[in-house]
Amino acid sequence: PLVLGIESSCDETGVGIVRGHTLLADAVASSMEQHAPYGGVVPEIASRAHLESIVPMIELACERASVKLHDVDAIAVTSGPGLAGALMVGVGAAKALAFALDKPIYGVNHLAGHVAVDQLEHGALPEPTLALLVSGGHSNLLRVNDISSDIVSLGATIDDAAGEAYDKVARLLGLSYPGGPVIDAAAASGNSVAIDFPRGLTSRKDLERHRFDFSFSGLKTAVARWVEARQRAGEDVPINDVAASFQEAVVDVLTRKAIDACVESGIEHLVISGGVAANSRLRVLAEERASAKGIELRVPKRSLCTDNGAMIAALGSEIVARGHGPSSLDFPADSSQPVGTVVSSPLG
Ligand code: ATP
Ligand code: MG
Ligand code: FE
């Protein structure tokens, strides 16, 4: 099927067009620079930017794919989770399109989209697959039995998301937003064993209750304390060593828990996606640890890891291909849509 996907859950306005597992177009506008002065996404600014970009991105995607809106078989749109006001822009636009063109509409789960996008690059996802989703707003370990209908959460962050930790630590080191790419770069010339930062939720006691959960706020505080102590002593802060040691603590826990989850559940395929999957150290360490256990690792290219419309089109395409019914036209934008709800308000 030819599916147009719309994404507007956070600060990217994305429109993608796919046919089956083939990516035809991916148009993305980001309001990231407008949020930079605030050190994080400002919801009102994001919503307004979506309003300005949504129609141009739909037009650009159609142009790049050389398709007319009337040729599209179905429309998919992120219904949640995400920022309520931001989601509403995409959902409203998608409903208007579906109504005007008389096409079926699928309100779909953003997190499932992050996983489904891998099919555009590496073909059909094996079933089951384990997915580690790490972005600015999420850190989840998912068991994907069927990407169109059966996703189970094994664990999630109990405080900050991994990307959020990068952004906050960058801020306290005086680096720019978003923090991921700058810390990644600084860490490249730093010593990752210079400082022994805490690995959240890995003690024996914590593992009993939080086997596959994550926690990054204690790590962020530990970095802040360490930096403050240096400054109080009137010493220079070795930014590259702090960045490398912080990064090692994050990716050590992420990869350790993801691989443990694969081993414990006998799953031989791991997908890592979301903005933090762009991290160079995460990609290297995950590959090392996966291959040591005979696990096949799939990581989409960087542009498909961050928020985009192609991931929503990819998920919609899979849902249509598997014969699931569309959403009823009154489905809501659900800022806290659970990962188990792949399609909102399905008509059956
Ligand atoms: P959501 O959480 O809803 O999926 P988002 O916009 O917050 O959406 P993404 O766009 O997927 O998330 O990712 C952005 C996050 O990824 C930011 O926190 C950013 O710092 C982080 N990031 C980007 N590149 C890197 C990198 N090389 N290393 C580590 N983190 C990175
Ligand atoms: Mg983003
Ligand atoms: Fe996302």
Describe the secondary structure blueprint for this structure.
Elements: E1 2-7, E2 12-19, E3 22-30, H1 32-35, H2 43-65, E4 74-80, H3 84-101, E5 105-109, H4 110-116, H5 118-122, E6 129-134, E7 139-146, E8 150-156, H6 162-172, H7 179-187, H8 204-209, H9 217-232, H10 239-265, E9 269-273, H11 280-292, E10 296-298, H12 302-305, H13 310-321
Parallel strand pairs: 1-4, 4-5, 6-9, 9-10
Antiparallel strand pairs: 1-2, 2-3, 6-7, 7-8
Helix pairs in contact: 2-3, 4-13, 6-7, 6-9, 6-10, 7-10, 9-10, 10-11
This protein binds adenosine-5'-triphosphate (ATP), magnesium ion and fe (iii) ion.
Which bin fits the share of residues in helices?
Answer: 40-55%
Could you state the order of secondary-structure elements as H and E? EEEHHEHEHHEEEHHHHHEHEHH
Low-confidence stretches: none
What does the largest sheet look like? 5 strands, mixed
What overall form do the CA principal axes indicate? globular
Rg, Å, rounded: 20 Å
Please report which band the strand proportion falls in: under 5%, 5-15%, 15-25%, 25-35%, 35-45% or over 45%: 15-25%
Bound small-molecule species: adenosine-5'-triphosphate, magnesium ion, fe (iii) ion
Class per helix and strand makeup: alpha/beta
The total strand number stands at 10
Total helical elements: 13
Q: Separation of termini?
A: 19 Å
Strand order in space, largest sheet: 3-2-1-4-5
- What's the quaternary structure here? single chain
Q: Mean pLDDT, nearest integer?
A: 97
